[in-house]
Amino acid sequence: MVKTKLIKSTGAAIFKTVTSFKPYQDAKRIGVYLSMPTGEVQTDAIVRHALQSGKQVFVPYLHKAQNPPPDTPRSVMEMVDLLSLSDYESLKRDSWGIPTISSETVDQREHVLQASTKETKPLDLILMPGVAFDLDPNTGYIRRLGHGKGFYDYFLHRYVQSRGSRMSEATSPGTDVILCGLALQEQFLDTKTGSSVPVGDHDNLLHSLVVGDGKLLGGPSRE
After folding, report:
1. What is the reported pLDDT for 3?
2. Fewer beta carbons below 10 Å: N end or C end of the chain?
3. What's the whole-model pTM score?
């Protein structure tokens, strides 16, 4: 019971910070992950708020890569739009309990990366999950440890290329879209205590992070 109350209060604090975050308020097109029932920040209230506020919301869609080049994951992530609040509410949950876009409806949706029947414009903000996060003391940006599949890092690499840009050095997020992580309190590692997130050459830095108590951390994008 105490844990349930803690999760709810964490979600409420993060929801308040996210919806007060100027890049969120200004955003017309946002990407946001759909959460597992446990173990990560719940995004249901954020998705509903964004849709009800008239924002276009894009969510992950995993699929097999066709003719992937060497060193490319077999499964890759695209982001596709939710058509409405009722569309979101109709999504079925997968084996992980995550609301999931059906392959039968994916062709009806706007795709961020792949050609679709709708005009594709840039995203303004992406809210991202992770296993662990910390604040890079050298750059002021956020380091993120994912689940090891590389879905978001590979998506961001292709996203930057699709916008006609090139990834910058690993000292900044390297993209105009604001990247913001959402973390439970225990997922944020305090580098002052000697804990840190291991990062590789292909790991993407984030502009900001909202932690379970509602605190906003991060670099120059902070407002």
Report:
1. 45
2. N
3. 0.87
